[in-house]
Design brief:
Blueprint (H helix, E strand, L loop, with lengths): L1 H5 L1 H17 L5 H13 L4 H18 L4 H18 L16 E6 L6 H14 L4 E6 L6 H12 L2 E3 L7 H15 L3 E6 L6 H18 L6 E7 L4 H13 L4 E5 L9 H9 L3 E5 L7 E3 L2 H9 L1
Parallel strand pairs: 1-4, 1-5, 2-3, 2-4, 5-6, 6-7
Antiparallel strand pairs: 7-8
The structure holds guanosine-5'-diphosphate.
GO molecular function: GTP binding; GTPase activity; signal recognition particle binding
Family: Belongs to the GTP-binding SRP family. FtsY subfamily.
GO biological process, one term: SRP-dependent cotranslational protein targeting to membrane
Length: 303
């Protein structure tokens, strides 16, 4: 339900375009596919993906001898889901949650993408499930980042480990890991600074944090989630690529999907990066973070 609402903008453009396509064409011909490609490209699926989808659809249509545009609709939905699934190297769409011992998750991404908000939402969700959640304010670089995380900690009803601005992020993580162990936390969510301008420093900083975590918990961090802002379209893609070069990202959080009419960016990101979208942000509220489900997503675009 929430999913439907969060995709309203994308649906209004893409869905409407599709409906027009289905009613304007009486038969499925070359022109039909050209218009379909245009619709896909304008929803930020990316050129390559639009062509792949169109080519595969054309084959399918021939194979099944489909003539009416309306009969293609279902095939399009199936194809989009199938293509999403086939793009993955890592098929685990879910958070790698640990059955025993703490689950430690690092959040990376540039400022303003919705990192703090996503952490707050996730903390709230786990706390509501009865888990003991701790946050680490390891973005000590940006003025205000620590306070902002503390505000979200209060909202979500969870504790936040913080040091002074400008202090060593790895020291914050060290304390947070220590508390996690001593006080038996189930989940530790770590906020990090997103300074892509200085990739070498960022890389070193992230590696140091990881080492501190690994020393105590060798299989951790269990996820390194990259938060990207869906409303920035192709820019989100470029950013994500750069982050992937900086550190081992295990999955994506696509924030502000509710704020874009170009939900197709999900497919473009998936195609370019082969990373699973694990969570999507569908609003500013504390309950507006959802598991990503390709089927629901694609159906949401059409409904
Ligand atoms: P950070 O700098 O990456 O930590 O970004 P913030 O968490 O402060 O978020 C930046 C802005 O984006 C804030 O105004 C948030 O309310 C907003 N925001 C974050 N996630 C979402 C979302 O899923 N949907 C919408 N509409 N806004 C969001």
């Amino acid at each position: 339900e929430k999913y439907d609402k969060g995709l309203e903008k994308s649906r209004r453009t893409f869905g409407q375009f599709m409906n027009e396509l289905f009613s304007n064409f009486r038969v499925v011909d070359d022109e039909f596919f050209e218009e379909l490609e245009e619709a896909l490209i304008s929803s930020d699926v990316g050129f390559d993906m639009a062509m792949t989808i169109s080519d595969e659809l054309q084959e399918e249509v021939k194979l099944r001898n489909v003539k009416k545009p309306k009969d293609v609709e279902r095939t399009i939905v199936e194809k989009l889901v199938e293509i999403y699934d086939s793009e993955g190297e890592n098929e685990n769409n879910e958070i790698n949650f640990q059955a025993s011992g703490p689950t430690i998750i690092l959040f990376v991404g540039v400022n303003g993408v919705g990192k703090t908000t996503s952490i707050g939402k996730m903390a709230n969700r786990y706390r509501k499930e009865g888990k003991k959640v701790l946050l680490a304010a390891a973005d000590t670089f940006r003025a205000g980042a620590i306070d902002q995380l503390v505000v979200w900690g209060e909202r979500a009803g969870v504790e936040v480990v913080r040091h002074k601005p400008g202090s060593d992020p790895a020291a914050v993580v060290f304390d947070a890991v220590d508390r996690t162990k001593k006080e038996g936390y189930d989940v530790l969510l770590v906020d990090t600074a997103g300074r892509l301008q200085n990739k070498v420093n960022l890389m070193k900083e992230l590696e140091k944090m990881k080492r501190v975590i690994e020393r105590e918990y060798p299989s951790a961090p269990h996820e390194v989630l990259l938060v990207v802002d869906a409303t920035t379209g192709q820019n989100a893609l470029i950013q994500a690529k750069q982050f992937k070069e900086t550190t081992d990202v295990t999955g994506l959080v696509l924030s502000k999907l509710d704020g874009t009419a170009k939900g197709g960016i999900v497919l473009a990101i998936r195609h370019e990066l082969k990373l699973p979208v694990k969570l999507v942000g569908l609003g500013e509220g504390i309950d507006d973070l959802h598991d990503f489900n390709p089927d629901q997503f694609v159906y949401g675009l059409f409904k």
